[in-house]
Amino acid sequence: MTMTSKPRLMQGNEACVEGAIAAGMRFYAGYPITPSTEIAEIAAERLPKVGGKFIQMEDEIASMGAVIGASLAGLKAMTATSGPGFSLKQENIGFACLTEVPCVVVDVQRGGPSTGQPTLPAQGDVMQARWGTHGDHPIITLSPSYVREVFDMTIRAFNLSEKYRVPCILLMDEVVGHLRERVELPDPASIKIINRKRPDLSKIEYYNPYQDYDGDGIPPMVNFGEGVPYHVTGLIHDITGFPSTKPEVTEYLISRLMRKINDNLDEIIDYEKFYTEDSETVVVSFGSTARSVIRAVKILRREGQKVGMLRLKTIWPFPHKAIQELPPTTKNIIVAEMNFGQLIEVVGASAKGRFNVIGLNKYNGELISPDEVIAKVREVNKNA
Amino acid sequence: MRKSLEKYYRIDKLPHIWCPGCGHGIITGAVVRAIDNLKLDKDKICIVSGIGCSSRAPGYLNFNTLHTTHGRALAFATGIKLARPDLKVIVLTGDGDCTAIGGNHFIHACRRNIDITTVVFNNSIYGMTSGQYSPMTPLGAYATTAPYGNIDRNFDLCKLAQASGATYVARGTVYHVPQLIKIIEKALQHKGFSVVETLSICPTYFGRKNKLGSPVKMMEMLRDNSITVKAAEKMPREEMVNKIVIGEFFEENAPEYTEEYMKIIQRAQGEE
Question: Does CATH number 3.40.50.920 belong to domain A270-383?
Answer without folding.
Answer: yes
